[in-house]
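Severity: low
Component: inverse-folding endpoint
Summary: output formatting inconsistent between runs
Steps to reproduce: submit the following structure tokens with default settings.
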């Protein structure tokens, strides 16, 4: 009789059933033997073996192979017509079966075929396809949901949640940026439609991120109206939210209930004082014992440092209460008296740089908060120039050496001043050490196109290394600064040099399009210009969430896919892959354009192409590069769990 599948069938469970059937049959279980006989009668017609371990002639392709040799290619790749199960008869016993059946070494693929036929399917592949279609791919569904949340596509998110109960159970999981649950991500973006959608499907309005330094919730929020909406939907106003929303009554209430909360750590490990939205909120906290110079855990920065840019009045109040002053804070506040005070306390601070000295994190990789807040942390002088604080700029410039004057002139794109310095010291540029030559990379990051142009004209190294060992081109690519990309490529900047993360310029640009997403960047134009420069084909990634950028990449690859194996794999064009390998089989395990075919299939998330490459005999022992990861570990690193499982299954079958 036919057994019905459950409403949510599990392929893994069906595989276990086949293995158990095989084990029972090999142990001589009569019920297992009867099931085999009912659904695989062709086994009875096989020649009687002299011994289960006797080898068969090579011409007998249907004969079962001995256990001591490699199994034949599994028959679960062949669709066979179903055999009607016997009806109206007692279950057969081992004694009623032809002697040949129980003596033959049954293969796992045959046990799988029996399981398939017991469930009414002609073959194991048909059963497998049915199960995969009936149960959505968890990884693919989760990935689609994340993309919908990040892009604000509430209709797509709603459809995915409605269709997938497993996804609904993960609605508060920390799957978004910085280990945030979807509702925190949506609230941060001020996306009311997405928040409403998530709440409709059971999201917790008070879920928090699981960020290592301290989790963030949906509050506080920079938009007071949106914050009131969140509160109306049930968001809890805790001590950090009360400080950030300037809800003084609630803040006093919480402090009265728990005085220690004034130094409790919240998001990023910040105390409530670092969230204080007003002088009044800061006063309430300080009067209740808040530690004025407590540093957060992620950026190891004080409340005053966090406030210098967006809450200068609160920053000044904290300084009046004894908060520690630094040179960047003084320049940011535009106060020459504070600048002189900071220099009096530390004369060397005029040469300070964010990312060094006291402006570097020691126990965290998060980086000092000034990296994220200041227009530039390259020097107090440059910051004064960026902010237009001329009085402070002139004062700091009067203290500078010739090298510092040259760099200041370059930063402000003042060619006259730069050449005046070089007139007295012509070799100054050539003699610049790496920590000064890097200014061209810093200028590229700051989108100072004319400054970069001037430095190139004066002889600065177009491939000088800046932050993260990135070249000027790499820095411009992350932010999509197309004018700089063109300028640097025309100046001969390298397309091959990698940053500390291993990324060359094109991958850096593709990453930036999806992750950094600088609103002033033109990622499509940048990518098109980089593609026109003939980058290594391994750098061309098709799985880009930014649709216009993805379209630009596809436009580049389409003409290549007819003749180039890696391009065909990237686009998932299986007919082209077949055709190319038929013409030149040696390409199967050869590196083309810096990429190996099976690794490219993993990277580009092309499971069907990967299956074909494996079928043709792709070498799974290869590594992407010397000393690099193997293919399964690489799939895991690429967050391709389904493909990793596909590879494990292939390797297991290969070694069986």
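Observed output (run 2 of 3):
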């Amino acid at each position: 009789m036919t057994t019905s599948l459950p409403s949510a069938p599990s392929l893994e469970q069906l595989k276990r059933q086949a293995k158990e059937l095989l084990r029972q049959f090999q142990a001589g279980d009569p019920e297992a033997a009867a099931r085999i006989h009912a659904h695989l009668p062709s086994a009875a017609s096989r020649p009687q073996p002299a011994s289960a371990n006797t080898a068969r002639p090579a011409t007998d392709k249907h004969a079962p192979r001995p256990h001591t040799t490699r199994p034949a290619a599994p028959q679960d790749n062949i669709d066979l017509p179903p055999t009607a199960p016997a009806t109206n008869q007692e279950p057969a016993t081992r004694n009623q079966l032809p002697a040949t059946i129980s003596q033959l070494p049954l293969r796992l693929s045959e046990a799988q075929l029996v399981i398939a036929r017991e469930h009414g399917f002609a073959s194991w592949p048909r059963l497998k396809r049915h199960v995969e279609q009936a149960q959505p791919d968890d990884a693919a569904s989760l990935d689609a949901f994340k993309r919908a949340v990040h892009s604000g596509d509430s209709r797509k998110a709603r459809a995915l949640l409605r269709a997938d109960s497993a996804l609904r159970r993960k609605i508060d999981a920390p799957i978004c940026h910085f280990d945030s649950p979807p509702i925190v991500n949506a609230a941060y973006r001020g996306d009311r439609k997405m928040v409403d959608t998530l709440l409709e499907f059971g999201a917790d309005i008070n879920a928090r991120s699981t960020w290592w330094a301290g989790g963030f919730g949906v509050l506080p929020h920079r938009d007071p109206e949106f914050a009131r909406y969140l509160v109306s939907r049930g968001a809890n106003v805790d001590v950090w939210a009360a400080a950030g929303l300037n809800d003084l009554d609630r803040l006093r209430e919480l402090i009265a209930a728990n005085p220690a909360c004034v130094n409790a750590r919240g998001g990023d490990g910040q105390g409530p004082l670092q969230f204080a939205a007003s002088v009044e909120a800061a006063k309430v906290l300080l009067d209740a014992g808040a530690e004025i110079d407590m540093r957060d855990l992620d950026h190891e920065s004080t409340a005053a440092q966090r406030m210098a840019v967006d809450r200068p009045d609160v920053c000044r109040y904290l300084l009046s209460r004894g908060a520690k002053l630094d040179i960047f804070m003084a320049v940011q506040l535009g106060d020459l008296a504070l600048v002189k005070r900071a220099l009096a306390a530390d004369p060397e601070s005029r040469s300070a740089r964010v990312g060094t000295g006291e402006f570097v994190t020691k126990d965290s990789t998060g980086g000092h908060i000034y990296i994220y807040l200041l227009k530039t942390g390259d020097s107090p002088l440059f910051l004064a120039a960026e902010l237009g604080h001329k009085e402070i700029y002139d004062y700091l410039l009067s203290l500078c050496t010739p090298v510092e004057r040259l760099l200041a002139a370059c930063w402000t794109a003042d060619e006259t001043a730069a050449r005046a310095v070089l007139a007295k010291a012509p070799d100054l540029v050539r003699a610049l050490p790496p920590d000064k030559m890097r200014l061209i990379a810093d200028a590229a990051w700051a989108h100072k196109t004319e400054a970069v142009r001037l430095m190139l004209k004066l002889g600065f190294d177009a491939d000088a290394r800046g932050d993260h060992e990135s070249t000027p081109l790499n820095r411009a690519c992350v932010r999509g600064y197309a004018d700089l990309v063109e300028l640097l490529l025309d100046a001969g900047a390298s397309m091959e040099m990698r940053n500390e993360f291993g990324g060359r310029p094109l991958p850096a640009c593709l990453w930036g399009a999806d992750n950094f997403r600088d609103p002033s960047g033109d990622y499509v134009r940048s990518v098109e210009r980089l593609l026109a420069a003939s980058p290594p084909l391994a750098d061309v990634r098709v799985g880009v969430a930014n649709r216009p950028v993805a379209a630009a990449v596809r436009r580049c690859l389409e003409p290549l896919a007819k003749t180039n194996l890696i391009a065909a794999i990237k686009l998932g064009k299986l007919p082209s892959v077949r055709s190319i390998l038929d013409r030149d089989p040696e390409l199967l395990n050869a590196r083309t354009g810096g990429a190996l075919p099976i690794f490219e299939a993993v990277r580009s998330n092309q499971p069907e192409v990967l299956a074909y490459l494996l079928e043709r005999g792709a070498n799974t022992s290869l590594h992407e590069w010397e000393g690099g990861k193997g293919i399964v570990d690489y799939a895991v690193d690429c967050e391709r769990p389904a493909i990793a499982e596909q590879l494990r299954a292939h390797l297991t079958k290969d070694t069986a």
